[in-house]
Amino acid sequence: MWLWFSKLGSPKWFYELSGRWLPWLVAAMFAFLFVGVVWALLFVPQDYQQGLTNRIFYVHVPVASISLAFFPLMAIAGTITLVWKMKLADIVVKTAAPLGAWFTAFALASGSIWGIDTWGTWWIWDGRLTSLLFQFFLLIGVVSLRSALEDSDAAAKACALLSIVGCINVVVIKYSVDWWNTLHQPGTDFVLSSNKANGPDIWVPLVLMIGAVYLFFAVSMIMSTRNEILERERRSQWVEELVDNL
Amino acid sequence: MKPHRRKRLAVVAFIAVSLSMATGLTLFALSQNIDLFYTPTQVAGGEVNIGQQIRIGGMVKEGSYESANDTMRVMFSATDYVNEVPIQFDGILPDLFREGQGIVVEGAIDSNGLFVASRVLAKHDENYMSNEVKAAMEAAGVNTENQSALAEY
Amino acid sequence: MLNAIQFSSFSEFLNMGGYAFNVWSVYGLFTIFLGANLLVPMFKKKQILKDLKRRRVVNKNARPEINE
Predict the structure, then answer these.
(1) Nearest-CA residue of chain B relative to A46?
(2) Domain residue spans of chain C
(3) Is some CB atom of chain A closer than 8 A to the CB atom of B117?
(4) Residue A182, in any domain of the structure
(5) Where are the domains of chain B?
(6) Hey, which of A15, A56, A174, C56 would disulfide with A114, CB 3.0 to 4.6 Å?
(7) Residue to substitute from B37, B124, B138, B142, interface A, most A β-carbons within 10 A
């Protein structure tokens, strides 16, 4: 267990392993994306209330729900950075923050465009929308904190702490629709029966799209993590050998 | 685990716990203000002053919708199935507006107890289904209108 | 579970029941969001490797005292 843990923290080991996984993940991502998008756009029946704006649901919901995974991920990696000073953990904190900001920005933008015609407004300061906007600013905060601090060790510590603190907001985002009354609808309970609301004709393509967006998240994270490893380990022997063999 | 690591972990845990407690208490203190709207029952209970700019959330009461022929003016009532508030609005309603729909209105109550709205928003519920499923459920006598949104009010 | 295709013509598909702007701008943004976060790290990797390669060649050819 401890051996595995310290091995996982080794950038070289991660670089080699992820290099083998990456092509498979990319292939799976495109397969899920293709089937998911075609199904969502062409085959999902129009909603009894929203008509064909329900197409937006299939990209908004996966991205918005996965955007909530960034702070917990960064907090776990940040704790490992603070306690065990593992190199790879800080790289994850660094590469997750800008990608998380992209996820949050897309969730906000797609929700706004969805709201124009269904709610009658593109923005309202309700609990859900405000707390998600706050997450966007927190992630921008983590990104700028890193670039503002010149001492990379201090930057790693500060970002790790901010990541842990930011998790509180994730809980607020998640339960905002239950704790307070909001314009945003609460989460949906999907059912197996096909003759009820929220049945398989609605959620099967959603599951495919959630898979696609998770794979995209993994692929993009791995790619930028590998880049960061190359830059940080450039003076190490294995990177020099890798460059020599190009 | 080495002692210095255990100490660092304890410090991190202490900061995380104290910050989440502080946030929790702040949110608890603010919870009234974070609510987006008042319910008709809160309005009936005198929680709102005349002329105060507020939002009210509820369902458009079945059979309450009236529109004037020559102007944009519409009248309807917002209900939480306990109390209701009469609403007057001059403007364009959102696509999802209809009787039985959850809505949020912005405006103020005048001295006659009429809520003059400056904006009407549709509150979509969390149920998604096709016209076929909806028709089948209605044929089976299931009420499909915002069933779970009811619990909110 | 899998219904029939919901559109009878391509123009009906493009029109999206009157919500063409909403649906297509969201899917357009989705494409940009995916594309940017896949292509930028891809080009960045090429850039980094090119840069490292150039430094290696310079370092190897240079005299030891100006090596980093």
Answers:
(1) B130
(2) 10-66
(3) no
(4) yes
(5) 1-34, 40-152
(6) A56
(7) B124
pTM comes to 0.88
Residue A74, amino acid: M
Domain assignment of residue A60, yes or no? yes
Instruction: Answer yes or no: do C38 and A246 touch at CB < 8 A.
Output: no
Sign of CA dihedral A200, A38, A112, B27: positive
Who among B27, B124, B149 is closest to A119 (CB)?
Answer: B124
Give the pLDDT of residue B138.
81
Residues of chain A positioned with their CB less than 8 A from the CB of C36: 102
Report how many domains make up chain A: 1
Q: Cβ B131–A50 below 8 Å, yes or no?
A: no
- ipTM of the prediction: 0.91
A119 touches A129 (CB < 8 A): no
Q: What is the CATH superfamily name and number for domain B40-152?
A: Nucleic acid-binding proteins (2.40.50.140)
3-state secondary structure B63-116: CCCEECCCCCEEEEEEECCCCEEEEEEECCCCCCCCCCCEEEEEEEECCCCCEE
What is the per-residue pLDDT across B56-83, written as a single tens digit (0 to 9) for each? Answer: 999 999 888 988 877 889 999 999 989 9
Assess C27–A contact: CB distance below 8 Å, yes or no: yes
| Mean local confidence (pLDDT), B98-103 | 88
> What range defines the domain where residue A30 resides?
15-43+50-186+197-244
Chain A interface, mutation test: which of B27, B41, B129, B142, most A Cβ atoms within 10 Å? B129
* Residue B5 contacts residue B18 (beta carbons within 8 Å): no
| Averaged pLDDT for residues A63-77 | 96
Residue A10 inside a domain? The answer is: no
Q: Is residue A110 assigned to a domain? A: yes
Query: Each residue of A192-235: pLDDT tens digit?
Result: 887 788 888 889 999 999 999 999 999 999 999 999 999 999 98
